[in-house]
């Protein structure tokens, strides 16, 4: 994975699991899209977890990246799971009507 982009860190904690920390916006969304495609291509498992508990902000370009990554994963026989989304990410996905699209998981809701 390349060095952290401005305002965003993407950490590979284990295979098929990416943790995002920081802000996702137009300055880093293209690189994030590439990184997520690499994660999907490099994962032998059916599910790819994207931990978003550390994401403080996401704009429309970030939302577009998540939707595109979801579609790419589905086209490749996988599922993109948004894990532990921060309240701000959850609210943004809800405002966009996208909560049903993602397999959201959170320990806070169990």
From TrEMBL:
Pfam families the record matches: STAS
Signal sequence coordinates: none
Highest taxon of the lineage: Bacteria
GO terms, molecular function: anti-sigma factor antagonist activity
Domain STAS: 18-110
Family classification: Belongs to the anti-sigma-factor antagonist family.
Name of the protein this chain belongs to: Anti-sigma factor antagonist
Taxonomic lineage: Bacteria, Bacillati, Actinomycetota, Actinomycetes, Geodermatophilales
